[in-house]
Design a protein that fits this description.
By secondary structure, the chain is an alpha+beta fold. It has 34 helices and 31 strands. 53% of the residues lie in helices and 20% in strands. The strands form 7 sheets. It has an 8-stranded mixed β-barrel, surrounded by 5 helices. Strands 7-6-10-9-8 form a 5-stranded antiparallel β-sheet. The chain starts with a strand and ends with a helix.
Length: 932
Amino acid sequence: MVHNHIEGSYNWFLVCLSFIIALFASYTALNIARRVLMSEGWKKRGWLLGGAVVMGVGIWSMHFIAMLAFHLPSGVTYNFVTVLVSIGVSIVGAFIGFGIASHSGRGTPRLIVGGTIMGLAITGMHYIGMYALTGITITYSPSIFTLSILIAVLASIVALLFSFRRNNHYWLSGFIMGIAVTGMHYTGMSAAHMSMPVNMLSRTADAQAMDFIEMAIYVAFGTIVIMAVSLISSMNVDKKLSEQLSLKGSILESAIDCLIMFDHKGAIFEFNPAAENLFGYSRSEVIGKSIEDVLMPGLPRDRTTMNGMLCSGDTTLLGKRVETMLPRGYGGEFPAEIIVTRIRREKFPVFTMYLRDLTERRLVEEALRESEERYRKLIDFSPEPILVHYHGVISFVNEAALRIFGAEQDGLIGRGFLELVHPECLASAAQWLERVGNGSANGDPIELKMHKLNGTMIDIEAKSILVHFAGQALIQTIAWDITDKKSYENTIRQLAYYDMLTGLPNRNWFNLSYPELLLSVSARGQQAALMFLDLDRFKLINDTMGHLMGDRLLQHFAAVLSETIGDNRKVARLSGDEFVAIIQDCNRSELELMAETLIRRVAEPIQVEGQDIFITSSIGIAIYPEDGETLEMLLQNADTAMYAAKEKGKNQFQFFEWSMNHCQARRMNIEKALPAAIEEQAFHLVYQPMVNAQQGHLIGVETLARWEHPELGTVSPCEFIPVAESTGHIIGLGEWILLMACKQMKDWHDAGLPRIPVAVNFSVIQFNQDQVVDMIVRVLEQTGLDASYLVVEITESMAMQHNATIVSKLHALKQLGVSISIDDFGTGYSSLCYLRRFPIDTLKIDKSFVQDISGAGEDTAIVEAIIAMARSLKLQVLAEGVETEQQSKRLCELGCTDMQGYWHSRPLSIQQFEQTYMSAVYLARAEAAAAR
């Protein structure tokens, strides 16, 4: 049969349409196929099949439209079965190619194989589709035929490389694949030589061409709709996936802990920013690498791999907190805590590793350990005895505390702190520790009686603080053994409060205890009587028969007095032959009987060394409260009654009557005259020198106020000072005295007097004023006197009050440079532990102890004790009332060289002082002494 060669032409509209279809189909198929990388199981297979179908249908649609674009003779038709085969080939080829390319561990060889299969599928579909044409004969040019296959294969490989290796280049891979399909088709068409029998060849009609265009448009529209639906579905999935990835990325990026995800083979596929910072690797450096090689290079390879253990569900690793050392990317190791969890499992498990850097925690733990070690060493080597207890149980003691309690280390650890406290102190100790534990303690020390492990009682002064250590609230107690100090204090107390000769309480004890006794009597609504007793002619006996005889006589009288008064009454020896007794809850007749008994018994002869001694006693009685409501008034009125008894002939008793005493009237007159005297400055000051007896030079002066009244005459400070205190006038008077004293001392300094301080006495009334410190500062500024040349003298009774406000004011003055001195020391009992709280510079020994210091009696012992105490507290000591050379020498022997009194100088007026101490002779001698 004769065939004629077919020379066809192309409809360029359909050619362009076929190219567009190829591009759209390629992009859509590759876009869908990339879901395979993000899916597992049936989802992965679904996306793989969908991409293959879209690719196969798209390629076939392009091929069909491209065939319609070629003007074939009338009568050419398609074999439907063959067309279906060609479509199946393209779909299967795309499925296999995508599947190989998207397989885990995607490498270039897999992409080449997948691209080759897809290229062969494209060419296979084309040439099978060409074979579906009926009515024509087709032969191919071998070279062009081969070229078409190479174009399809190479373009498919390149498209897959861009698609699966460069995730952001799907549009480029779609464009390349579209070119591959169209290029292969038209290259294949160029390779084809088509011919038909002569009898079938006819001219192509315009109507037939129009039918082909309509058919191509329908096919293209259908194909585009299918691909659009697929692409929209893919984009919706992309949107959800993007949201999930964004959420996942946000969680991973914001996570404080390191998070690493890896598959069952150990390949890392997630590495958050915290992990990058910790290990020193970037995410791109570790993705796809083995977790064992990157993070655990030292793991032995001859054992089961970590991934194998995890995949098998080994509970020794899975879900457990493991602390280990891990390497950093830039070298070195760090401690880490690891938890590995299995987050999902379909075909193969995926694991998440949470890591936390323990470097800071280890540093904190090491710092805590070092801190504890330092704390223990500080306590261990502290000379202070320290006990640390937690919830009342001793947990640590140092060597000093062990020595105090006579224990080994194990002897105190684990014991209750209160077990060591004496029962009589148990309640106060428990309350004290409770206040320390809740932080309400004021920090003051407490004195306790405690016992050693051998049962020996000791006195302890303890101070505790609440400390926080290693998250626990502990109580640290410093316990000083003050047994010797208490014994020393008791000795001083005995010396200061009891008469060494008779064993009776002395004046100090009387002044301290009797006010409390009167308060208790008043609270019960009872009466009390104060007896003032004096031995008649005692001075004569003492002078003529000697002090030994006098001492025995006093001892006998004290015994008779104690027996007659009874144990439930208080008896004291004030001084010399003066005794007092207070009798509670008694009436006048009982007092008369008691007084008569005393007078009778005292009058009985006393045998001393074979001699009969006769002595009598005069007694004055004042009744509380009718004869006085204060101890001072009762004592004064009883003394007045005693002198009234002496005036009546001695050896009798006398009840107080107000007519006996004009003191009350005088006191009222003083009270009336005092305000005007202060306003008119009717007082004048005298200055009593303080000297160093060994060196003979001036060390200071004490300011004393004097008052000469035109009607009352000389009014002693003992009279007007108590009145000023009780009326409140002491405030104004005290400020005037301070002003005049500071001004005078400044003038003397400017005139060339050696720079010595001036001492000014202050009343407790003054120190109870809030502005007393400001007043002193104002006076110093006004006079120009340096604060270091002012000495504020307070009484021991003021110090005994332990008033926190007064203590704070004294500290404020001390910070200004003002010196603090305690006047009349020894007349009141001051505990050493409280005395230390005061910023004291000088103790002034009361003159009552200096009077009899020449012998070896109790006054000498008291002075020695005071001097020793002052030295232990590093204080200066000065003796008052030195009136004889013998007293001065004896004080120097005892170590007290600073003193004042009539022996060295009486109080001097300004003119007398200047004549004595501002003379050229004295100043020259003072300069020479200073030069030595």
